[in-house]
Amino acid sequence: MKRTKMGRWLADTAAMLAVMLATLPVQAAASFLTPDSTVEDMYTNPALVALGLETLEDGTLWPEQPWQNADSSLQDYLKAATPDSVAGLNLLIDNDNHGVQVSFPLYSEEEIAADPTRAEARLFYFPAEQPGGKYALVVSGNFLECTGRVGEGCGSAFQLHEMGYAAFVLQYRAGSRIKDNSNYQDLVRAVQFITQNAQELGVQPEDYALVGYSAGGQLCGLFGTDRMGYSNYGLPKPGALLLGYPIVDYMYSKPCYFYVYDGAVPGDHLAPGDYYYNIDLPAEISPQFPATYHWFGKNDLTIGILIPPLQGPLLDKALEKNGVMHQMTVYDNAPHGVGVGNGTDAEGWLKDAVAFWEVAVAAEQ
């Protein structure tokens, strides 16, 4: 039976469409970010949204809204941290595009149903090029409602990845969600998760490092204490704590946290050990405390408000007294919140700290 002209045209068109469809990707990969990308590009990036990474960091007194800073470039928003932080975000996107699971909830559906704030707690994974090595868990700082999960967290994770390590960034509860030590519970759960799934994640469960900034540094420090640290949960001892401008004594801000976030009323009393912010870390140091590298800057205004001699220097004295391997560095120019320290005297501190970590682990073997 002869084909009509219309029949031949339909057949040719169908064949051409089939070729075109065969060459199309099944699903377009999520796009990457650049320093010139806007803040809106970051918080609407499909991959980052799907992963549950909260790139809109909370404001000091109220959550940052999408319209705030939306048109600002990431270079203006993240400042000196931009190169490493953007590279870290892109590493997450790239691994996700290639089918690598890089985002893990820390609580089960039943646990979240019992406490919906737990849905916020997640772990973001930056795999090493070669599996089977040590890992570092990065805990960014926070001030009331404000956190540094992008500037401090992703930037540090990228540098650690470039040095050959697997890294994790903890997205823990902050601000009004920190009632009853929930942020510290998230840190403990994160180490438990990595330890239990070390083989699947391609990391060693022992000799890991906790990298903590500011208030996140205090949480990491608590994890090394006899009072409420790793030994209370049957977890391996950290190989080292690597702390940037850690807050080790909350000083006169303790009542603020007690009354505003933990719902205290006049007549209630702070009891040592009840709340993480009420614990003065130097007083809790023992000979079993992990090896510790820590630093701060002389022009750190936050440390200045909280009385500098009672922060890093007091921690260092306690470490020395208890025979714990330690190193403290004080920089002339390193303001609070600079993370990996780009553009300041602290630039490159993480490489020095990693070298300290390796020496500390070797000394224990």
Provide a compact summary of the structure:
38% of the residues lie in helices and 12% in strands.
Structure, described:
Mean pLDDT is 89; it is low at 1-11 and 13-28. The chain has one domain: Alpha/Beta hydrolase fold, catalytic domain (Rossmann fold). It has 14 helices and ten strands. An eight-stranded mixed β-sheet has the order 1-2-6-3-7-8-9-10, sandwiched between helices. Helix 10 (214-222) links the parallel strand 7 and strand 8 (240-244). With 365 residues, it is α/β, with parallel strands linked by helices. Helix 5 (82-97) packs across helix 7 (149-162). The N and C termini lie far apart (85 Å).
The helix-strand sequence is HHHHHEHEEEEHEHHEHEHEHHEH
Assembly category: single chain
CATH fold-level name: Rossmann fold
Distance between the termini: 85 Å
The CATH architecture can be named as 3-Layer(aba) Sandwich
CATH class: Alpha Beta
Total helices: the number is 14
- The strand order across the widest sheet is 1-2-6-3-7-8-9-10
Helix content: 25-40%
What radius of gyration results from the CA coordinates? 23 Å
> Could you give a short account of the major beta sheet?
8 strands, mixed
